[in-house]
Every structure is written in structure tokens, then in C-alpha cells.
């Protein structure tokens, strides 16, 4: 993915401002060249004591050109920056629109600090693409060609010298800078991403690092990453300074060449001496427009590297969804109807993992049924829920909801119709009320209090503060608040991933009763480790190592004395041993 392809469509939509900024920049550049040329001519002309009206005309022309230059420069800045901010806004919007469907896959494979650096830093660096990469060459070439054409009326040799200077400053100097920076391509971006990742992990794991005595090592690693970033930035700045110095040298060298060549032409009688100061001033002014080309390689490189990193982000996520992320499924689930789910010979594995997570899973959840999925840790239970939620695409097989293949369903519509409780629910910094009203902020205070009562949180007030990631909540409180959020949703499909694993048995039974009562007419699929209370389920699915081992009702599985029966016996023994120890 190139930076130009990222910007092309957005630039077409902002073509009016872009064209106006180019026009303003051209007029400002030409006005500047003519202004200083007229000033040089005015100074030279005064030596010959011209008529007063000539001086008045020249002075007036200089003042008018000064006003034109200022107004054009203002317009150029206004339209170019407005176009830039609009382009950046469109880029952010388009990027996040593409990122949202891929987010679950990306978050599972990227370090959060590195992903944050890509989303924020890389997109931010593209804001300079138009102002510092695409725009300057257009202005430089157009202004230079106009100046060369102007100079050719007085001396073709000076015009050729200006053309040579343009070629050097427009191509040779940027090439020199680019060659010097070739060895450090992307180094600053990579080191910044590494520093962001190390900082994020240090902040997230500060307590554990402190407890286990690893804080000092992590701090040293963070300082090392910071030092490498500083070194990379210094190296980058040095290459940039060399380019700017070389540009200044070429500018003065060409101006000196115009002086020498002009003196030679005047001595030969090929050019009037009154034009020498005008041409020197023109040469010195026109090279001011090309100063931006000295920094162009740095911005071009940063933009290209940022675009490539964004492209890698999409490519990695889209490869996990078999390229289906760009499609826009339009099918939606029927409103106010329970959802039937069918998994037909589903296989699934992560792109980076050779080992399959699920192998040949075939299940059917009737509309309005209640299903429990049990099995040892790592057996693939959570993956089944994630596939139904369209967070991943199956490697093989198909998933059908209400007769519609899941690939044809709109993901956001599916999520809005599903009540989900995951193992690690996220909580935002704010009040209890803020974290409950994620879907519908029109809920009354009494409704919220009733839900807190149902999940056995009567002591929580709606205005109580919740810290980022729920740091001031226990695991049990987090689970009960997550269940409360699900109870407030209006979906007819419930997907619960160990929703009560951190609750005691008494609280767990009460909360489960509230959920089952709320979902009595809905389809409910619950992953759980504890086997108590599963008698009320219509179906129990036993999963081990990604394969369906047993399926049936509680009584059926207990009668056949298979895998589920053994799990139940082990649980009873553990509970009995615990009770004996307490006694």
C-alpha cells in the first residue's frame, strides 16, 4: 500500500482546495520573484536618474506586488492547510472504517503499544504528504519555468544557468539526501513503535513487575529503547541538515554564477548593465521556493514507511479473514426473533499457528434453546463463540444464523442483536452509569438500579467512579457489571463465556437465575467450567482439543457415563474435599 494510493481518492474529493492552493502558491512565488526583480531594477535604474514618473511606476509596482504576494501566500496557506486537514480527516475516517471489522484479529496478534503507534503515529505522519511531498515539486517546477522564461528575454545563458540550478536543487540535492538516509529507512518509526510497546507493557504490568522484582530490568530496557530512538532521530536530523546546507550552497553558487556570467555578458555588450541586479535578485528569490525540496526525501520516506506499516496491518488481518474484510455484507438478522445457529463441519486455526483450534465441529442451536459448552481449558470453547460473533472467519466449513451464512451478515447488526459477556470485559473510566449505558442512554435510573439488584450489586451507586480497565473492581464485580450490561441489551442471542467463573456458588446461582429468566424465550449459548446447574440446559456440548466429544441433555450424558460423567464426578469429589477441609 503506497502513500499515494491512500491519498488519491481523498485528494480527488478535495480537488477544489488543492487547485486553489496550487494557484495561490504559484502566484505568491511569481509575485515574489517579480517583486525582488523589480526592486533590483529600480535600484539599478536610479543610477541613470530616470524621469520621476518612471520611479513612481516602479515604486507602485513594488508595493502592488508586495500586496499580491502577501494575499496569495495567505490564500495558499489557507487552502493548502484546509485541504491537508480535510485529507487527514478523511484518511482517519476511512482507516478506522476498515479497521473496525478487522480489530478482533489485529488485537490478537499485535502488541497494543505497536498497534497504537500505527493507528496514531503513522496516520499522523501522513498529514505532511500533500504539504511536504506532493505540493512543493509542482510549485517549484512551475515557478522556476516561469522565471527561466522571464530570464530568457534578457539572456539565454543566464536562463540556462537557472535551469541547471533548478535541476540540481530539484533532483540532485533530494537524491543526495535520500541516499544518505537509505541506511536508516524506517529506523525512527521502528524505534518509536518499540518504545511505545515497551512503555505500554511497563504501565500495564507495573504491579506484577514490582512484585516479582523485574521492574528495574524493564526500566533499563525502556531507557535503552529511548536512547536508540534519540540516536535515530539525531542521525535523521543530521542528514536533513546536510541537505539544507547543500541547498543553500547551490543557491549562493548559482547566484554568484549569475553575477559572474552577467558581468561577462555586459562586458561583451550582450546585455544591458541595468538588468544585472534584477536577474541576481530573481535568482536569489526563486531558489527560496525550492528550499522545501531539501526536506522532501525525509517526509517522503516517513510517508512511505507509515503507509507500508498501515498496509501490513490490513494485510495481516485480512489474511486471517480470507480477504472478506473489504466486502460489505448487507444481510441482517430478523428483528425481535430468537436466533438459530448452525455450525457445519467447521475447522479453524489462527494464521500464525500450525495447530488447529477446532476440527470438524458440527453443532446446531435451535431458536430459543439453551446450550452449555463444557470442556478443559484450551479445548476451543471460546473460539466457537468468537466464530459465531464473526470475530474470526472459519478456515473451513460454514456457520449459518437463521438460515443466512454468517459471511453475508452485517457484523455490526449481528453484534447489536447479541448479548455478549466475554471473559475479559472492558470497563471505561467513568461512573457505573456510564459503563452500563453503552447501548441505550435512555434507560431510567430505576431500570439501572433494578439490574444492579438482579446481579447482586445493590451496594453499588450509579455515580460511583470506575477507573480505567476497572482497576478498582474485583473480578467478581467486573463479571456482574458485564452481566448487567448484557441484561440491558435487547438482543435475542446470548453468548456467554464463563460469565460467573469469579463468583461464589450462592451469587452464581442467583445471577444465573436472572439471566435465564431474562433469556427464557431467547437463544443462549454459555461456556462454563462449573457443571452445577446444567440440568436446566436443553443441550450440553462437551469439547476436547477442538473436537466435539459428547452432545446431549444432562440426564443423557450422565446415563452414558462418558466424558461429561467423569468431569461431574471429579467436580463432586473436589467440592466434597473442600467441604471436609472446612469442617
UniProtKB/TrEMBL annotation:
Residues 341-570 form the ABC transporter domain. It is a multi-pass membrane protein. Keywords: ATP-binding, Membrane, Nucleotide-binding, Transmembrane, Transmembrane helix. Its main location: membrane. Residues 19-288 form the ABC transmembrane type-1 domain. It is found in: Cell membrane. The keyword Ribonucleoprotein does not apply. InterPro entries: AAA+_ATPase, ABC1_TM_dom, ABC1_TM_sf, ABC_CydC/D, ABC_transporter-like_ATP-bd, P-loop_NTPase, Type_1_exporter. It comes from the Bacteria. Gene3D superfamilies: ABC transporter type 1, transmembrane domain, P-loop containing nucleotide triphosphate hydrolases. The chain crosses the membrane at residues 20-44, 50-72, 128-150, 156-177, 249-267. Coiled coil: none annotated. This is Thiol reductant ABC exporter subunit CydC. It comes from Saccharibacillus kuerlensis. The lineage of its organism: Bacteria, Bacillati, Bacillota, Bacilli, Bacillales.
Amino acid at each position: 500500500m503506497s502513500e499515494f494510493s491512500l491519498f488519491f481518492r481523498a485528494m480527488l474529493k478535495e480537488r477544489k482546495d488543492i487547485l486553489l492552493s496550487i494557484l495561490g502558491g504559484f502566484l505568491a512565488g511569481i509575485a515574489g520573484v517579480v517583486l525582488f526583480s523589480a526592486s533590483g531594477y529600480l535600484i539599478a535604474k536610479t543610477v541613470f536618474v530616470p524621469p520621476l514618473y518612471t520611479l513612481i511606476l516602479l515604486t507602485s509596482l513594488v508595493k502592488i506586488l508586495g500586496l499580491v504576494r502577501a494575499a496569495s501566500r495567505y490564500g495558499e496557506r489557507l487552502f493548502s492547510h484546509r485541504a491537508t486537514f480535510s485529507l487527514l480527516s478523511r484518511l482517519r475516517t476511512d482507516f478506522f472504517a476498515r479497521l473496525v471489522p478487522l480489530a478482533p484479529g489485529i488485537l490478537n496478534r499485535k502488541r497494543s503499544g505497536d498497534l497504537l503507534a500505527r493507528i496514531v503515529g503513522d496516520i499522523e505522519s501522513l498529514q505532511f504528504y500533500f504539504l511536504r511531498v506532493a505540493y512543493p515539486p509542482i510549485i517549484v517546477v512551475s515557478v522556476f519555468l516561469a522565471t527561466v522564461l522571464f530570464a530568457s528575454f534578457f539572456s539565454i545563458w543566464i536562463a540556462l544557468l537557472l535551469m541547471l540550478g533548478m535541476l540540481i536543487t530539484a533532483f540532485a540535492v533530494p537524491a543526495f539526501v535520500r541516499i544518505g538516509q537509505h541506511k536508516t529507512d524506517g529506523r525512527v518509526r521502528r524505534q518509536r513503535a518499540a518504545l511505545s510497546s515497551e512503555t505500554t507493557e511497563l504501565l500495564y504490568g507495573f504491579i506484577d513487575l514490582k512484585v516479582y522484582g523485574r521492574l528495574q530490568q524493564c526500566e533499563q530496557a525502556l531507557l535503552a529503547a529511548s536512547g536508540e530512538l534519540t540516536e535515530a532521530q539525531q542521525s535523521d536530523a543530521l542528514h536533513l541538515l546536510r541537505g539544507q546546507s547543500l541547498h543553500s550552497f547551490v543557491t549562493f553558487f548559482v547566484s554568484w554564477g549569475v553575477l559572474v556570467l552577467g558581468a561577462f555578458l555586459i562586458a561583451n555588450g550582450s546585455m544591458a548593465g541595468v538588468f544585472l541586479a534584477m536577474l541576481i535578485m530573481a535568482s536569489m528569490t526563486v531558489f527560496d521556493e525550492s528550499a522545501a525540496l531539501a526536506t522532501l526525501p525525509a517526509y517522503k520516506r516517513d510517508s512511505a514507511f507509515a503507509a507500508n506499516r498501515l498496509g501490513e496491518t490490513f494485510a495481516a488481518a485480512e489474511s486471517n479473514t480470507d480477504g472478506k474484510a473489504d466486502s460489505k455484507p448487507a444481510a441482517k438478522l430478523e428483528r425481535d426473533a430468537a436466533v438459530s445457529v448452525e455450525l457445519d463441519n467447521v475447522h479453524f486455526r489462527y494464521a500464525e499457528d500450525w495447530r488447529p483450534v477446532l476440527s470438524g465441529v458440527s453443532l446446531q442451536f435451535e431458536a430459543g434453546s439453551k446450550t452449555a459448552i463444557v470442556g478443559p481449558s484450551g479445548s476451543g470453547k471460546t473460539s466457537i463463540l468468537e466464530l459465531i460473533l464473526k470475530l474470526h472467519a472459519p478456515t473451513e466449513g460454514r456457520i449459518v444464523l437463521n438460515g443466512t451464512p454468517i459471511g453475508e451478515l452485517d457484523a455490526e447488526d449481528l453484534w447489536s442483536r447479541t448479548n455478549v459477556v466475554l471473559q475479559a470485559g472492558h470497563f471505561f473510566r467513568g461512573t457505573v452509569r456510564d459503563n452500563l449505558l453503552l447501548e441505550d442512554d435512555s434507560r431510567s435510573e430505576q431500570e439501572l438500579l433494578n439490574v444492579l439488584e438482579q446481579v447482586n450489586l445493590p451496594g453499588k451507586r450509579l455515580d460511583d467512579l470506575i477507573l480505567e480497565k476497572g482497576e478498582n473492581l474485583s473480578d467478581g464485580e467486573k463479571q456482574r457489571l458485564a452481566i448487567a450490561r448484557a441484561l440491558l441489551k435487547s438482543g435475542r442471542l446470548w453468548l456467554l463465556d464463563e460469565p460467573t467463573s469469579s463468583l461464589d456458588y450462592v451469587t452464581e446461582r442467583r445471577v444465573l437465575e436472572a439471566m435465564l429468566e431474562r433469556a427464557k424465550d431467547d437463544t443462549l449459548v454459555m461456556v462454563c467450567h462449573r457443571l452445577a446447574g446444567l440440568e436446566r440446559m436443553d443441550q450440553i456440548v462437551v469439547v476436547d482439543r477442538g473436537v466435539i466429544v459428547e452432545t446431549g441433555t444432562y440426564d443423557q450424558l450422565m446415563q452414558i457415563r462418558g466424558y461429561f460423567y467423569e468431569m461431574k464426578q471429579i467436580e463432586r469429589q473436589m467440592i466434597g474435599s473442600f467441604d471436609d477441609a472446612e469442617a
